[in-house]
Amino acid sequence: MTWAEVTARKLWVRLGSPEPPVDVGAVCRTLGVEIWVVSCGSALFDAVYTPRTRDGRRLVTVNGALSRERQRFSVAHELGHALLAGHAARTAGATWNLERSPLRETEANRFAAELLMPKLLLVREPRRLVPPVKELAARYLVSREAMRIRLVQLGLMPLHTDEGAGVAEEAGGLKDAG
Predict the structure, then answer these.
(1) Per-residue pLDDT tens digits for 141-152
(2) Fewest beta carbons within 10 Å, which of 13, 20, 71, 78?
(3) Does 63 share its domain with 139?
(4) Dihedral (C-alpha) 95, 101, 105, 110: value to the nearest 10 degrees?
(5) Same structural domain, 127 and 96
(6) Does the residue 123 lie in any domain?
(7) Are residues 92 and 121 in the same domain?
């Protein structure tokens, strides 16, 4: 497991190891982070974490034009930036960090995946020849794409199935189930 995944696992355990779907609103409340949904009607941004507003609040602003599943993943991704060392090194009142590195984005994605789709739960799901991505995505309230990537990363679904097609690059070719 990566450090991002370990951090997410520890948070999930701290929350009482909830069954899916993980309540991202409750996670934010536990961490003292507010969620603001703004309807900008475009794909200008998915979500942005502000570590401290001018009045001292911690805030995740999420694009209300996104699907519910995408909003959940985006909020969890931003929580990754909030909790992972070195990610939230922005000044008070800042709302955008144009210098996010690909490594930090990958780490935040790994954090969000482990928080919303914990390995400990996915490995307990009934085994089938082809994992039911659509059903699992609905149960965990994540997109099908996010679920496919997660299953491939955990080695629970091969890349060569129709369900796993197109995720080799997003999964980083990783099959580390450790």
Answers:
(1) 999 999 999 999
(2) 13
(3) no
(4) -140
(5) no
(6) yes
(7) no
Write down the pTM of the prediction.
Answer: 0.81
SS3 82: helix
- Terminal-residue alpha carbon distance, the chain: 6
- In total, the chain counts a number of residues equal to 178
In the chain, how many H helices and how many E strands?
A: 7, 3
User: What are the start-end ranges of the E strands in the chain?
Assistant: 33-38, 47-50, 58-63
112 part of a folded domain: no
Q: Are 11 and 94 in the same domain?
A: yes
**Domain edge (last residue) among 44, 67, 101:** 101
How does DSSP classify residue 126? P
Residue 161, amino acid = T
- Does one domain contain both 59 and 28? yes
Number of C-beta neighbours around residue 4 at 10 A: 23
Structural domain that includes position 145: 117-178
H or E stretch at 21? none
User: How many angstroms separate the CA atoms of 85 and 55, rounded?
Assistant: 23
The tens digit of pLDDT for each residue in 31-67 reads: 999 999 998 777 778 999 988 888 989 999 999 999 9
What SS3 class is residue 128? Answer: coil
